[in-house]
Prior knowledge:
By secondary structure, this protein is mainly β. It contains one helix and eight strands. It has one helix at residues 88-91; strands spanning 4-10, 19-27, 37-41, 47-52, 58-63, 71-75, 82-85, 94-96. The protein has a four-stranded antiparallel sheet.
Amino acid sequence: xxxxxxxxxxxxxxxxxxxxxxxxxxxxxxxxxxxxxxxxxxxxxxxxxxxxxxxxxxxxxxxxxxxxxxxxxxxxxxxxxxxxxxxxxxxxxxxxx
Length: 97
């Protein structure tokens, strides 16, 4: 199975207390993974937000006000699933295996 690489830049928007996660999903060679799924999950694994990577691999995922993301999952057919805790300080500008 191919390995999914993700260069994730997380920006937290304080407007209306909604959180916005942005970043880019790529493969090991740096090519964008078009239409990769980006899913924010809350307590108990409930989905709180969903986005797809655009043609350039970039995505923007907004967590609605009143919801809280515990983790963010990155999925693409033919690649492994990557799960990261939804904490900006741990993910900013770091490649994921």
